[in-house]
Amino acid sequence: MHNTAMQRYLFAFLMFEMMRAIHTNYVPACARIIMMLIFNYSNLVDPLLKDLRAFVTNFAGIKAGDRVLDVCCGTGEQVLDYGRRGIIATGVDNDPNMLNVALKNRKRHDLLTTSFQLADAKELPFPNGYFNYASISFGLHDKPRLIRKSVVSEIKRVVKRNGIIILVDFNVPLPQNAFGLFARTIEFFAGGEHYRSFKDYLASGGLDSIVKEHGLVELNRTQLKSGLIGVIKLIND
Ligand SMILES: C[S@@+](CC[C@H](N)C(=O)[O-])C[C@H]1O[C@@H](n2cnc3c(N)ncnc32)[C@H](O)[C@@H]1O
């Protein structure tokens, strides 16, 4: 069998087994560890979200020369899409391993308008109103409620008045389909505080409750991946 076909088959088999294990509430502790050894963000999540990055840039209407912050940027894929279009983009994340991947990709593609910084999203190292736009993708569902609140307050602070904020995260309620089951599976294997926060994010109403809590004004919204992902464009009023 061709190598890629074999990898796909193995991936599908493992996902099926994981879902079955979760469904039957039987997940040995070592399963989480094995999963973490086999899969990482770059080889599992990034390929699945490849088309999301260009979509977000287009949906937000960001143009070359705009100054944009991507919060909790992970491996930097959104920032790199901004950079390919001449947008002046900065990504921040508090995980040096994620940023190392981002920096390697930046170097490989030679994207001069992009930069990455190690920083805590609760205390962004930028002055008030510094950016025209900010985005955060899958950086809210994984945090406890109070941290979620601080992160969004910080995003509001560093985006100029009437600037644009893009929130991308799991839609609530999650769809009752394979995509929803897949998300629950991934989050379950993330475990610990991440999984507890995910459950709280779902229970509290997800992005809608965040938009309401922070008094953000909605311009537009859409859903992707059969209702799994919500994308909301907001004005920093
Ligand atoms: C689920 S990943 C999303 C990554 C990326 N935005 C994407 O769409 O693929 C969440 C990211 O948030 C980062 N993160 C978690 N807490 C953070 C904090 N307090 N400050 C900055 N980054 C944080 C993690 O290191 C991780 O890279």
Write the layout of secondary structure elements.
Layout: H1 3-23, H2 29-38, H3 41-48, H4 50-60, E1 67-71, H5 77-84, E2 88-93, H6 96-109, E3 114-118, E4 131-137, H7 145-158, E5 159-170, H8 178-190, H9 192-204, H10 206-213, E6 217-224, E7 229-235
Describe this structure in words.
This protein is α/β, with parallel strands linked by helices and 237 residues long. The chain has two domains: 1-39; 40-235, 3-Layer(aba) Sandwich (Rossmann fold). The chain has helices at residues 3-23, 29-38, 41-48, 50-60, 77-84, 96-109, 145-158, 178-190, 192-204, 206-213; strands at residues 67-71, 88-93, 114-118, 131-137, 159-170, 217-224, 229-235. It has a seven-stranded mixed β-sheet with strand order 3-2-1-4-5-7-6, with helices on both faces. The model has no long low-confidence stretch (mean pLDDT 89). The structure holds S-adenosylmethionine. S-adenosylmethionine (SAM) binds next to loops.
